[in-house]
């Protein structure tokens, strides 16, 4: 089923426009809140994924977060320079780079849950629990493969 036609398509009424604008609002608010930790919202995703063991290589992080490998490399470079993580080559496969959080990275990742929920809750304050659940369900449906 087509939801858009070329005759009725307008930028500001497209789902893509709304999702992109919502993302930009959230990124700006999250980045401002995370400034005290010296990380961005994108870097937050990397640190949390590593802390929870969800991803331990650049490839796994790229796939999980939907970030191309070139950008991922640049983000990891910045996190390494700031001493949030370390890299090492796999002994089994030299092509694989393993990532580990440093003590500073661990401490920073542990502080993220003190900050991020407040930003999200503020943006969602006008939503009922049912609206929140429905929005979550629909977004997960939208991004499903």
UniProtKB/TrEMBL annotation:
**PROSITE patterns in the record:** HTH_MARR_2 (PS50995)
What are the entry keywords? Answer: DNA-binding, Transcription, Transcription regulation
Q: Which domain of life is it from?
A: Bacteria
Pfam families attached to this UniProt entry: MarR (PF01047)
Transmembrane recorded as keyword: no
Domain HTH marR-type residue range list: 12-144
Q: Can you name this protein?
A: Multiple antibiotic resistance protein MarR
Organism in which the protein naturally occurs: Paraburkholderia gardini
Lineage of the native species?
Bacteria, Pseudomonadati, Pseudomonadota, Betaproteobacteria, Burkholderiales
């Amino acid at each position: 089923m087509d939801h858009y036609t070329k005759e009725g398509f307008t930028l500001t009424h497209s789902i893509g426009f709304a999702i992109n604008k919502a993302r930009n609002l959230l990124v700006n608010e999250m980045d401002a809140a995370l400034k005290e930790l010296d990380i961005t919202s994108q870097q937050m995703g990397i640190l949390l994924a590593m802390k929870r063991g969800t991803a331990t290589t650049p490839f796994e992080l790229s796939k999980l977060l939907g970030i191309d490998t070139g950008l991922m490399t640049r983000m990891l470079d910045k996190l390494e320079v700031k001493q949030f993580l370390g890299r090492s080559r796999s002994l089994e496969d030299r092509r694989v780079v393993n990532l580990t959080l440093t003590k500073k990275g661990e401490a920073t990742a542990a502080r993220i849950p003190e900050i991020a929920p407040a930003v999200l809750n503020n943006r969602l304050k006008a939503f009922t629990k049912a609206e929140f659940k429905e929005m979550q369900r629909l977004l997960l449906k939208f991004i499903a493969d």
